[in-house]
């Protein structure tokens, strides 16, 4: 931990939680198409890009969809999702996350976001963290999604730090794999706290303060 200079945070499932909104928006789309979709399938979408999420949902479809149709379905889902995000407010940022980020910053770490979401800036604005992070790497600046390391490598580049000097905090297995392929230290939280590939496993966000202590 001594050489760690920066911490890159996944967004959904780490800083805040939008799974229910993703679920509602995908469910609305799936119901309209007559495709079976439930919370278990939704669990497989954690950390996965929008189009890859759609492909998982379409595994239950009774017909093939063209690329154009898929793009329309994904766009329709995103419209509903963005409408649901309007409900989010700074109250959706827990005091624990807020305080921990503040203390990490005081300790001199650079802080960044590394998220698959193309709605990252919207979510950060809703929860009152717009402009807070030193860098943001998200679904809008990558061509390959997690487990590819691109999103985290770009975050390190934006920060001007070497990959080996970065911690990644992730809730998805694909995100832990991405962090390891990037040559970074992977911290698993939530579901990923049960993943053997994580270098460090934490049960709560505040435990980040004990790293390197
Ligand atoms: P969007 P993360 C991911 O965010 C979510 O976990 C995943 O469920 C979602 O499909 C993906 O973002 C893309 O989101 O449709 O907003 O571009 O966990 O990488 O912060
Ligand atoms: Mg996540």
Description:
It is a single chain. This protein is an alpha/beta fold and 213 residues long. Helix content is 40%, strand content 11%. The chain has eight helices and six strands. The chain has a six-stranded parallel sheet with strand order 3-2-1-4-5-6. Helix 6 (120-126) links the parallel strand 2 and strand 3. The longest helix is centred in the middle third of the chain and has 19 residues, at 67-85. The mean pLDDT is 96. The protein binds 1,6-di-O-phosphono-beta-D-glucopyranose and magnesium ion (MG). 1,6-di-O-phosphono-beta-D-glucopyranose binds at residues 10-13, 22, 45-50, 53, 78, 115-119, 139, 172. Magnesium ion (MG) binds at residues 10, 12-14, 46-47, 171-172, 175.
């Amino acid at each position: 931990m001594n050489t760690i200079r920066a911490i890159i945070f996944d967004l959904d499932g780490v800083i805040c939680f939008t799974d229910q909104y993703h679920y509602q928006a995908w469910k609305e789309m799936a119901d309209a198409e007559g495709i079976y979709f439930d919370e278990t399938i939704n669990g497989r979408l954690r950390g996965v890009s929008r189009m890859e999420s759609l492909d998982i949902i379409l595994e239950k479809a009774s017909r093939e969809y063209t690329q154009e149709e898929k793009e329309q379905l994904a766009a329709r889902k995103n419209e509903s999702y963005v409408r649901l995000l309007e409900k989010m407010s700074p109250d959706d940022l827990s005091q624990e996350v807020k305080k921990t980020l503040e203390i990490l910053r005081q300790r001199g770490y650079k802080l960044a976001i590394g998220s698959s979401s193309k709605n990252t800036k919207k979510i950060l604005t809703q929860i009152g963290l717009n402009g807070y992070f030193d860098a943001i790497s998200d679904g809008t600046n990558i061509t390959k999604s997690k487990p590819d390391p691109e999103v985290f490598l770009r975050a390190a580049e934006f920060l001007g730090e070497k990959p080996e000097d970065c911690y990644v905090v992730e809730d998805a297995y694909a995100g832990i794999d991405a962090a390891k392929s990037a040559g970074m230290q992977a911290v698993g939280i939530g579901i990923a706290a049960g993943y053997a590939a994580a270098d460090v496993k934490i049960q709560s966000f505040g435990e980040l303060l004990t790293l390197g202590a």
